[in-house]
Fold:
Amino acid sequence: MNSFEKYRLPHVVFGLNTAAQAGEKLKAMGGTKCLVVTDSGVIRAGLVAPILESLDKAGLPYVIYDGVLPNPPDYTCLEAAEKLKSEHCDCTLAIGGGSSIDTAKAANLIADLPGEIGSLHDYGGTGTKMKPSYGRTAKFVAIPTTAGTGAEVTVSAVIYDPKLNLKYSFMNENMVADCVIIDPMLTVGMPPRPTAVCGLDALCHALEVVVGARQNDFSALLAFDCVERIWKWLPVAFREPGNLEARSQMAYAANMAESAGGAANGHCVGHAIGARYNIVHGHSCIMVMPTLIRHHAEVSADNIRRLADIMGVPSVGSAQEVAWYVADAVLRYYKSFGLDTCRDAIRKNGFEDDEETFVQNLIPAILDDYKSRVWMPPIHRSEDRERLEAVCRSIYEEE
Ligand SMILES: [Fe+2]
Structure:
């Protein structure tokens, strides 16, 4: 049996209309003034006001930071941290997608970092400044409004550095929320395309847990169940936005896929593509999956056969053959939501990069992400350069 490390999980409240419990949960933790971290789109969608009412009802004063941006840039996390301190808040409530939750997670930690921060990148996965002993004093409740990122249970925030033009993981176990409220009702208004992109991100999380060298019995227990739910229910949520069972299944699976732990190995490439070519997270990650599955054909052979059974493709044959069947099923699946393969998506975003430029652009950003170190066979050492290039070429050539 493989050894593993399972990070701390938050208190979870799951169910339709549970978001109204936010005020009482924060109050029960001893909060006396709250920083609400969200973005203007979530406010405009009308999702924040009813939750703020619950804070009023609980007698909990609050201030709002609504400067969250997609792919949270480092400066927004610093701004939110500054507001947390200057407003003397002792608790934080994140309301939104992964960007709002990651911004809040980072801000909570930044607010307590000792000394001059300088560049946040120095605290990233390949930096040297983050210490496991760093913690946060603010109590923290997170309410996701999408079903995908699972950011409410992860130990890292994905930060964008505009100067370096790359995304990196700002990671510390103490970021994890004290309480997470998953209310599928908040996702009902999501249009089909964001529904698909977020759901595919959750699918990536589940796939990456079982396709790779670091899978373990606990993570597999949750991850296969998540793949099964997402494979069945994402097309329903996509076609029928008001289907509450589909929304509930997706909200549950998105949370559990990240609660499963494991290493999101494909995300190092997804982040690199997303940052360089301005492609939304779930889309840039899912386009990596077919290549990831073929790359891990031998090391994850048994798990890939289980995936084949779930996806309804042949699970007999050599490990390589089955990996190709599963990779192809994933490719057809994400294209069924109208999403482009890598090259088409890049072109549509106005980039003319040929294959060689694509490969050379990606490699430094992939290697900057510590998750590139858990691919098997390895891709991160200098002697693996050919293998890493093959991974990038395979993604670019996918049709
Ligand atoms: Fe993700």
